[in-house]
Fold each of these.
Amino acid sequence: MDIATLVILAVLAFWMLGAYKRLKRLRAKTHHSYGPLASHLRQRHAVALALAQAARPLLSGDQQPVAAQLIDAARQAGRATDEAQARSMRGNALKVVGAAEESLGTLLDLLVGELQDLTSGLGPEPAITELLRQRDALQEQIHICRLVYNREAERYNHALHVFPTTLVGLAWGFKTAPLLSGQAALRLKGQPSSPMPL
């Protein structure tokens, strides 16, 4: 093997190592950026549970199932969030989170609507008012954290889909990071190849 061939192989190996390290770093940043989002989701789960418990004395018999369903949805969303972090968001973990959060958001909005119908001119109880304030604040924080996560995921996905780095990604099993969308609830966008999703 001549010197020119050795030099080419050395340059190729050096480039592949650099591409691998870059993908690994970007993927790690994407995973780490999910942490604050998961933390705020867990806080929303806790608020939803507390709100359901506080609302129960105010609800009629026909309205009680909404509170019970909200409690179940909050617990399911919590399990899904924990599972997604434990699995480093592999496979369908975030899709499960998205579905659980969407269900939770729908039931939470439904309960809030029921409470608004029940309140008198004096307004709801102070404890419920505070929980509703926390819910609104968390919605904004979740939105911001979702944007941060998506920004990191976009950077990683962009690097992964640029040829010839794509070959390195395929060789080492790098997968496209799912992107999150939604407002009150957390939902998942699809993953079209071009242009890249959110």
Note: The longest strand covers residues 180-181.
Amino acid sequence: MPKIDINLTKNQQSLIFIGWIILALNLLAIGIFYADLPETIPSHFNYKGDVDGYGEKNTIWTLPLIMCFTYALLYLIIRKVKPWSMNYPVKVTENNAPQVYKMSLQMLIYMNLLISIIATPVIIETILLAYKIDIGFQISSLSLIIVAVVTLLPIYYIFKMFKIPK
């Protein structure tokens, strides 16, 4: 495969920074409300957004910490792994390498941004329900939509890669 370095654009760097900010805001929100949370809080939601599990209040840290770890790991892949060392669904040539590499990098950045957002609706709903505040719908269901988008995003980019001339 052609060895071409691809630099992050300002827009891509901004998206990465926004992801870090979202993760920090999630942790900050938990930190602000943590002391006043009841000892038992919602800890799991089913696919409809209904609470189907409860746990100690310290379980509220689990999902955002997993998201921080996942975000940091994918960030390291984005920054350190060379694009020519990755696998692609198309044959990479001298002609299409720049486009394929840029496209794969863009996909990883969007996926990472979405990963930073996944926990936000669950955190908000957990805090609201712990305070017995009902807003009339399950905001945690938005996480399911985000997971679906993260799952479908690579498929979208695979189809786009097949449209790049070889």
Note: Residues 11 and 17 are 10 Å apart (CA to CA).
